[in-house]
Amino acid sequence: MKCDCREMWFQDFPTFCGQRRVGSIEDLPDLNSLIQADIARWNAVKEAAAKGQRVQRQGWSIWHVKSATVLAGDNADQVLIPLLADYHYGEWVANQTASRTGKRLPIQAILQA
């Protein structure tokens, strides 16, 4: 039997952070700093790719969105809504919001506005 350990880690890490008290709501400013650095890195990747340079397209957006959702709890919208306009974060925010609330955000309409 093949074990997809990466998928297991991917699914469990944010929950572990929230439930085992590895992180707390006080960590949100640090998480926001990581998110902003990731957005800046993605912008640099897009610029480099446009110049024909070889780039690494590995991002951390899903990890950051899931972690923010777990750590922020009921305040998650305050953390996540500002990220909707970002190309790499918007779709993950919409998906996470849909799984939390049962309502799908119109991400394409938001991004085009």
Oligomeric state of the chains in view: single chain
Radius of gyration: 15 Å
Number of structural domains: 1
Q: Give the low-confidence spans.
A: none
Main beta sheet, described? none
Number of H- or I-type helical stretches: 6
Quickly give the structural class: mainly alpha
Total strand segments: 0
Report how far apart the termini are: 47 Å
Give a description of the structure:
The protein has 113 residues and is mainly alpha-helical. It has one domain (5-112). 65% of the residues lie in helices and 0% in strands. The protein is built from six helices and no strands. The chain has helices spanning 5-19, 28-50, 61-72, 76-80, 90-101, 107-112. Helix 1 packs parallel to helix 3 (61-72) and helix 2 (28-50) runs antiparallel to helix 3. The longest helix is centred in the middle third of the chain and has 23 residues, at 28-50. The radius of gyration is 15 Å and the shape is globular. The relative contact order is 0.13. The mean pLDDT is 77.
Protein topology:
Layout: H1 5-19, H2 28-50, H3 61-72, H4 76-80, H5 90-101, H6 107-112
List keywords for this structure.
single chain; mainly alpha; 113 residues
Explain briefly what this protein structure is.
With 113 residues, the protein is mainly alpha-helical. It has helices at residues 5-19, 28-50, 61-72, 76-80, 90-101, 107-112.
